[in-house]
# Entry
Amino acid sequence: MPSTPSTPSMPSTPNLSTASAASSGPAASAAPAAKLRCAVLDDFQGVALSCADWSPLDDRVEVRVLREHLADRDALVAAVEDCEILVVMRERTPLDAALLDRLPRLRLIVTSGLRNVSIDVAAARARGVTVCGTASGSEPPTELTWALILGLARQVHTESRAMREGGPWQSTLGLDLSGRTLGLVGLGKIGGRVARIGLAFGMDVVAWSPHLTEERAAEHGVRRAESLPDLLAGSDVVSLHMVLSDRTRGLLGEAELRAMRPGAYLVNTSRAGLVDGAALLGALREGRIAGAGLDVYETEPLPADDPLRTLPNVLALPHLGYVTEANYARYFGQAVEDIEAFLAGAPVRELD
# Structure
C-alpha cells in the first residue's frame, strides 16, 4: 500500500475558475496555497457537490467539477494537469500510461464502482498514484433494464412520440411478456435481480454464462441454457449482464445476432463492447431482430450523427443505468471517504 505522498508545492495564485467545495464567503475567495486540487470529471448534471458532504475536505482540498466530457486528450490534460486528485465516472475517461505520464502531479484517482477497465492500475501504481473505488448498487441498472424491456415490448417510444407530434392514436401492438422467454447472458447480482422480475411477470427465464452451473441457475429459479446460441435462438428478449473483458468483448457478433429470433429484442445495460457494433447496426437496419434497448455505447456521449439515435427500432438512453439519487450519494459520499483516507495515509477500497 503506498505511503502518503508529501504535499507538492502549489502555485501562489489560486485558479479563479475553480468551484471550491468550501462554503461561500469572504474567506473562501482565496484558497490556501497548501491545498491539494481535485477535479471531478463528467459531472453532466452538475450535482457532484450537492450529492455528498464535501466539507470534511474544506481545509485541505480545493474541488472543481467539469460538466463537459473532454474526449480530446490535450484538452483534458490542460484542464487537470494541476490536480493531485481526480474523481472519474465509470469508464468514460481512459487513464492509460501515456496519459498518466502527462499528469505528473497526480497522486490519487477515485472511480465510481469497484472495477474500471479504462484505468491502467499497474501503470498508476508504478507512478506512485493510488487508485480507489466506491460501491455501486445493483438496483438502479436492474430497474433501468426493465424500463427498456417494457418500453420495447409496449412500443412506448413510438406511441409517446406519436402523442407529442399529433400522430396516429394507437399504431402498434404490444408484446405480451407473460409466457415469453427471457434470455439472460450473465446471472450475477444484476442478472439475478432481472431474473426474479422476469419470473414475476410470468416469463420463462433462461440464463447462460461460461461458468454458470445448473445449481446456481436453480437457485434463481431459472433454466440454464446449454450454450449461448441455444439461449439466443430460444429467447424473445435477450438481456446482457456480463463483465467486459478480453474474453467477452464481441461476445455477440454477426453469427450470434443471426441466431436470434426475428421478433426478438436485445437489451444492453452492461457494456457496449459485449456486442459487435457494426453487426448490431446491420441486424437493426435489416430488421433481422425486432429492436434493441441500449444504454451503453462504445463512444460516450454518443455522437449526434450516430444512427443509433434515429433508428425507429432502437430505444436509446444516455447511459442512465447507474444515474439515480441513491447511487450518486453513494458514489460521491464514498469518493469523499476515499480522499479522506488517502490523506490520512490509509487508503481504502484500493483497486487491484
In short: The two ends are 11 Å apart (CA to CA).
